[in-house]
Design brief:
- InterPro entries: CheY-like_superfamily (IPR011006), Sig_transdc_resp-reg_receiver (IPR001789).
- Keywords: Phosphoprotein.
- One of its GO terms (biological process) is phosphorelay signal transduction system.
- By secondary structure, the protein is of the alpha/beta class.
- Strands 2-1-3 form a three-stranded parallel sheet, sandwiched between helices. The chain has a two-stranded antiparallel ribbon with strand order 4-5.
């Protein structure tokens, strides 16, 4: 049973390597450095590329350089604004 589960996980990882998701960058916007690094580490363990932004201004600069498919995970309360401002 464990061998079958391990095989399913291996196949899923192989399939993800062949998808656009493997090229997707996740921008994590969080002013708490510990939380930001924690989230980035979790995502990196799953094979995602992450970029950290501790301020809204940094996140906006990163979004100007963003490509199609990039994802943003944002805190709502930041020192220089809120995560909702990223949507505007």
């Amino acid at each position: 049973m464990l061998d079958k589960g391990a095989e399913i996980i291996r196949q899923a990882k192989e399939e993800r390597k062949n998808t656009k998701m493997d090229k997707t960058r996740i921008i994590v916007v969080e002013d708490n450095i510990v939380y930001c690094e924690f989230v980035c580490n979790l995502l990196a363990r799953e094979g995602f590329r992450t970029v950290q932004a501790y301020h809204l201004s940094t996140a906006k600069k990163l979004l100007q350089q963003a490509s199609d498919g990039d994802i943003v995970v944002s805190d709502l309360r930041l020192p220089d604004g809120d995560g909702i401002d990223l949507l505007r």
